[in-house]
Amino acid sequence: QVQLVESGGGSVQAGGSLRLFCAASGSINKNYCMGWFRLSPGKEREGVATIDRTSSTIYAESVKGRFTISRDNTKNTLYLQMGNLKPEDAAMYYCAARYWFCPSLDKPSDYPYWGQGTQVAVSS
What we know:
mainly beta, four-stranded antiparallel sheet, 11 strands, 52% strand
């Protein structure tokens, strides 16, 4: 089993920055794909970014150039550095994990492990 706990959410003004954290425990190791997803009212769950076991990354077009996903396998921690935040980035952000390969960003149901989420609010 894998447990994921997100933190780092908060309220910022447009143009501001936040760094999200996802602490992983249990049977997780460097061979897991990890990703960030978000959910806002009235919208479907959206893939934000993924990082695989080789640290290769994929980003949603909407966040490219503004967000950076990274991981520290020694600390079993996943990060999401978010910059130049926009009101449309406001959402509950979740981290997810899957052993070995990374499903595409539009396949959140392929991730078996999820955290409880951390809320991000962006005011204009």
